[in-house]
Amino acid sequence: PAENGKQNQSQSNGSSGNEPSNSSDILTTRQGHPVSNNQSLRTVGNRGPATLENYQFLEKMSHFDRERIPERVVHARGSGAHGVFEAYGTVGNEPVSKYTRAKLFQEKGKQTPVFVRFSTVGHGIHSPETLRDPRGFAVKFYTEDGNWDLVGNNLKVFFIRDAIKFPDLIHSQKPDPVTNIQSGERIFDFISNTPEAMHMVTFLFSPWGIPANYRQMQGSGVNTYKWVNADGVGVLVKYHWEPLQGIKNLTQAQAQEIQGKNFNHATQDLYEAIERGEYPQWELNVQIMEDGEHPELDFDPLDDTKLWPQDQFPWYPVGKMTLNRNPLNFFAEVEQSAFGTGVLVDGLDFSDDKMLQGRTFSYSDTQRYRVGANYLQLPINAPIKKVATNQRDGQMAYHQDLVPGLNPHVNYEPSSLGGLKEATPAGKDHTPSYSASLVRQKIDRTNDFKQAGERYRMHEDWEKDDLISNLSNALAPAAKVIQDKMIELCTKCDPEYGQRVADGIKKVSEMLKKEKEMSKNGNGQPAPGSDAQKH
Ligand code: HEM
Question: Above 0.85 for ipTM, yes or no?
Fold first, then answer.
């Protein structure tokens, strides 16, 4: 059986490399039979009927019938590239080993192969890449200690802080189950009842909600993780990718103009830049906080709707990533790639962030359904490290994780007959302890509006204008109860924000009313360039 080598993957379309070499250009079936006629069905006479024993046709057509797998339930539209991560070995003036024993970070210049998938979130696999939506930024590090997936977004905060709300959040953003059309009213029905979303909304409805492309956007782990050193001491950590190409976002009008001509512009931009040899780069920064509840802060460090203020928790660069190779086969490498927040290496750990813990169930669960039980045997998902498990079989089992020289009859542990053995721990375990009642409760320090208000005030004027225009346009057709709740939430963030949204909704509603009257009176469309048409 083939070893799960990234080398193989780089040779051909994500193939494992254990196929017999076939240098001939003769077409065959998947059974290796040469195909001498690929133009005509085998039929009784040249007008048919067809016969059922025609293996060549049955194989070709039935494989075609199965060409699609379920698309990702979120982040279905995406694009990917291979590259390398190079470590700096330090955190500020200190060696990185003070905080983490993860091998990939230790030495300056150490290189780790990576695969990255960028994505939009809400719509289907061929939806436009100009939509207002967070962008996914998922990185798979093929480390010597096995894989590490850092599954992030471009924006640094999220809509909700408890994983149990995720299906509701997504349902509100997906198309209406009756009309199959996405509806601003449904989105804001949920958001207006979810005050913790205001920080995210204040980013998302500004130009930050439409990055110009994948190369000029930031990335963030969003959730709080831990780093653990050789003594088992853990610290809280946040990850941030900073693009060395700079950051570029689009207004709604700019995005619409691009979408009218090209709805694949971000995939095309990434692919073509790499083909030209203009390799995009990002620096990875971390923010570090001592493990604990930090009652002195006005937010909870495990709350993913909050930023950690940079003046108190500086960004430390810890490495640089370069994307330098396009996939050879989109399906094998991008569509079947599977990232998950549970995929950590020694020296990295989970925090108690409730979103992170819920996510960690969801990713591998969906991938066992979406790709199959043996999704980790696919070259794009398999680690470069030799895999040695006692897991066997299942659909599409491609090989067993056998170690040469070990007793192949022993697929259990412990055994005295020559099976796999447990590893020696790489360092002291990180062993946080708990004493609390088992409850269903919100965290104490929700503080939903302070950072959202700061974000509103930090936006440049053109960003504020676009934010108000986008919110007003989305809210004007919504029910009054939703408008009122949203105005109230915006006001709690900043009174000016609330006032501008209220004025904006009023203005757009009047225009919509005027437009409706004009079409009712048979006046046709508003004149080009009229205010009504601008909205
Ligand atoms: C994809 C669940 C929150 C970033 C996915 C997928 C699921 C999922 C089921 C599809 C995975 C696949 O089919 O391979 C959840 C749940 C969440 C959550 C349950 C909250 C409880 C987040 C957050 C972020 C995020 C906060 C950002 C940090 C991503 C990305 C992908 C993704 C980037 C695409 C990965 C890829 O390119 O294959 N999520 N998600 N998700 N999620 Fe989440």
Answer: yes
